[in-house]
Every structure is written in structure tokens, then in C-alpha cells.
Amino acid sequence: MLCDAVCKQFTRDAAHNFSPICGFSLNTGLTDSWNLVWKLDLTSRGVMKPTVLETYHEERYTVAERMAELSVKLHTLDNSGSVMTGVESQKELHYMWDRNDGFLTGIGVEYHISSLNLYASDDIDLRVRPGMRSPDGRITPSMITDNVTPIRLLDLFTVVSIFHILVFVGDPSHNNDYLEKLADLLTLQRLYSGTPNRRMFAEHREWYELIIIVPANVSQASCTSIVEAAGGIYYTDDVTEDEGLYARYGVDLQEGAIVIVRPDGIVGNRIMLSTWMSKDPYYLAEFLNISNIT
């Protein structure tokens, strides 16, 4: 149990006093809560280290600070004096809104690199960076029924306190060895000595959801082991290459990638399939910051 003093401190920090324009206080308060609730849940249950709670202040304080500055500027422009000044102020008001609309709504907020937002050196495509909101897109489930229709990726993110591991398989034949190793890890077929975090990660599937995504031009997922590890279901990118999830996430159609999405929908890391194991053999468990529970 977290002590009352800690809970009260978080509560005070999540309360903001902005001008009523544009609903700043509501938007910021909601995103504060969304950032904090899963961290409180997982740390209180011992799934993550208590130090994870420190990332709440690291991530949200700068957002609230910038939001307060924008609130003052927009409030000043919205309450201009003369008619002529008011016309110019309205133009400036609309310009500032259009320029910052993603940030003001919370959708475009981007967090700095931290223990929860890891930047891989091979991640050269900057369309999706750790700390950004996970892009949405249409995917088609592999279930063979008459009523299968495309769904939204973000509709799968329904449980607050779990991570979502997106496995973009790329060319299954090209990446088969890497996918087999990942399946071995997730099914406890391959473990390394002296790695209690890895064993615990693999044994507690309630902490994460595995989502397999194949390119639109691939008729079926030939990498059966990783599909079985995901419960026998995979998803096909439903739209053209330029508009699909592979393009939105900046994932190469041949090389593939692993993208870990935090419970609050923020991208935590993205790394190529060919390098995730060699760069850090305990990569997944380290990212989750799992405590050494006995």
C-alpha cells in the first residue's frame, strides 16, 4: 500500500488552475490521471519498481508548465481590447490553436526519454519515437468467419494496466529465426541462467498482450510459433502500404520490428527484429522494470 502522504502529493500535483478557455484544466487533469493510474496499480502490486512513480513528475510537470504558459497567452489574445487589435488577436489565436492543437488536447504530447521510453540506436525512422502516442490504423483479424471486418488497433488497448507488444513480422521467411526466438522466450522454451526477471516476465502473461501484425501483401502468417504464443490470432495491415500501420510506425516491410506500447498508449520502445535479442538479451524484462519478486 502506498502511504497517504504519497497519494496526497500526487493528487495535489494533478490539480491545475488554468483559465477556463479551451478546457485546459480538464484535458490536463485527464491525461495526468491516465499517466498515473497504471503506474500506481503496477507498483502497488509489485509488478514494477517503485521508482517508476518518479516518471509521473518527469513526464507531466513539463506538460502542465507549458500548458499554463499557453493558457495565459490564449487567454490574453481572447480578451483583447480595441476592435482592430481584436481582429489581429483572433488571427493569432487561431494560428496558435492550429499550431498546438495536438498538444492542447493531449493527443500530441510527447514525453522525454526515460526508463519507460527507451530509444534504440537503430531506430532511424523518426515517424514514431519513444514517448509519442501510439498511432492508430485498421487491421483485420485472422479468425475465419463470415463476419470478420477490419478493426482499429487502438480498440485492442482496452485494459489499462497491461503493456501491448506489437510484433511487426515483416517478411516471415526472412525473420523466421528471430520470431522463433521471441516465441521461445514468451512460452518459456528458452531461458537463461540467473535471469529471474525473464522467467517472471514470461510466466505472467497478464502483464502484457502480444499483437502480431503482418503486412497487407502477406496472405498468412507462416511463423506459426509466434502466432501460437499470441493465442493463435494475428492481424493483417488492412490498407495500402503508404497508409498502413507499417508506414505509420516507420517499420520496414521486410525487416519488421517490435514496438512496445505502455498501458497509457505511449510508445515505450521500437527496435528491429534482427537486433532485439543481440543488443540486450533481457530487453523485454528490463523495459518492464519488473521487481525481483520471490
TrEMBL record:
Keywords: FAD, Flavoprotein, Oxidoreductase. Transmembrane segments: none annotated. The keyword Hydrolase does not apply. The keyword Transcription does not apply. This is FAD binding domain-containing protein. It comes from Jimgerdemannia flammicorona. Its cofactor is FAD. One of its GO terms (molecular function) is FAD binding. Residues 13-69 form the FAD-binding domain. It comes from the Eukaryota. Belongs to the PheA/TfdB FAD monooxygenase family. Residues 123-275 form the Phenol hydroxylase-like C-terminal dimerisation domain.
